[in-house]
């Protein structure tokens, strides 16, 4: 096998795995893609025969690049206008395995939960809890000692205490039906239907990135969300766009388009019973919607 053929085989075999780490680390599809491309560009100059554990090598290379990017992006995140939400990924993307494998760790609620962690906490938590690496391997990947990695994981878990694990409804059909009802109620400003769908302690989180007009701060409580959703002036643009019920991050969601591409995406977190919406995540930042295909 030629060097070129060997590299192409490695790329096909491990690209998705690299993306699965990078996307969870960063919460941004475009940055994850850049990281993985950089890793394979460096790999092209190496002799694969000299790398004894390719999967671990990919994980280490991706993780360290993500750590560097997260540390440099911290100030940018702090200065971000409004709330920051992850870029959604579509089931129709070139990475179907990303949504099929451990899809609960790709949900919006899960990715936002990870935002509570520092970059190194996030790396250790993901490598251990999601990708099941041993402490010795994680120590090698992060440049920490095994004892330090154990402490970091313990600290990360403490950080996440009080933030219950994201709940999903007991079936995709039930989830889809609820989202379809929400879409119709939202379109027609149907306060009665929205009242039945939203949990009393529901939260609306929007991300316009200072580019698209949307709520800058979270809206807490069903009554306040109802007033906003049923206002004749709010969301007038979204009510005239085409909408499609689709799957984002392994869960039923809505994508709004204007004929030229995606203009908004709405993801959800359900109550434990699966019949009410606890969180509504509205993404209108155009830079986070570029790669969505509907």
TrEMBL record:
Gene3D superfamilies documented for this protein: 1.10.1740.10, 3.10.450.50, Winged helix-like DNA-binding domain superfamily/Winged helix DNA-binding domain
Domain DUF4440: 176-260
Domain RNA polymerase sigma-70 region as annotated: residue spans: 10-75
Leader peptide range in chain numbering: none
Top-rank taxon: Bacteria
Record domain RNA polymerase sigma factor 70 region 4 type: where: 110-160
Subunit (UniProt): Interacts transiently with the RNA polymerase catalytic core formed by RpoA, RpoB, RpoC and RpoZ (2 alpha, 1 beta, 1 beta' and 1 omega subunit) to form the RNA polymerase holoenzyme that can initiate transcription.
Descriptive protein name: RNA polymerase sigma factor SigJ
Organism per entry: Paenibacillus cookii
């Amino acid at each position: 096998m030629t060097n070129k053929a060997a590299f192409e085989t490695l790329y096909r075999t491990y690209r998705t795995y690299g993306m699965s780490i990078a996307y969870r680390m960063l919460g941004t599809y475009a940055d994850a893609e850049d990281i993985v491309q950089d890793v394979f560009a460096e790999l092209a100059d190496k002799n694969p025969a000299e790398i004894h554990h390719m999967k671990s090598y990919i994980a280490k290379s991706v993780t360290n690049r993500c750590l560097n990017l997260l540390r440099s992006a911290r100030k940018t995140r702090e200065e971000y206008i409004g709330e920051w939400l992850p870029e959604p990924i579509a089931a129709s993307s070139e990475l179907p395995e990303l949504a099929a494998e451990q899809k609960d760790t790709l949900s919006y609620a899960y990715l936002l939960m990870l935002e509570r962690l520092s970059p190194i906490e996030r790396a250790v938590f993901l490598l251990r809890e999601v990708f099941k690496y041993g402490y010795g391997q994680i120590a090698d990947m992060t440049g920490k000692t095994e004892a330090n990695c154990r402490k970091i994981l313990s600290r990360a878990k403490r950080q996440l205490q009080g933030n219950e694990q994201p709940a999903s409804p007991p079936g995709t059909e039930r989830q889809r039906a609820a989202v379809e009802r929400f879409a119709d109620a939202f379109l027609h400003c149907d306060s009665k239907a929205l009242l039945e769908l939203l949990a009393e302690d529901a939260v609306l989180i929007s991300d316009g990135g200072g580019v698209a007009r949307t709520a800058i701060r979270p809206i807490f409580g069903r009554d306040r969300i109802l007033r906003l959703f049923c206002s004749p002036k709010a969301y007038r643009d979204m009510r005239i766009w085409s909408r499609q019920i689709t799957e984002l991050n392994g869960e039923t969601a809505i994508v709004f388009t204007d004929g030229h591409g995606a203009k908004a995406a709405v993801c959800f977190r359900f109550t434990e019973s699966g019949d009410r919406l606890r969180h509504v995540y509205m993404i209108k930042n155009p830079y986070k919607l570029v790669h969505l295909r509907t």
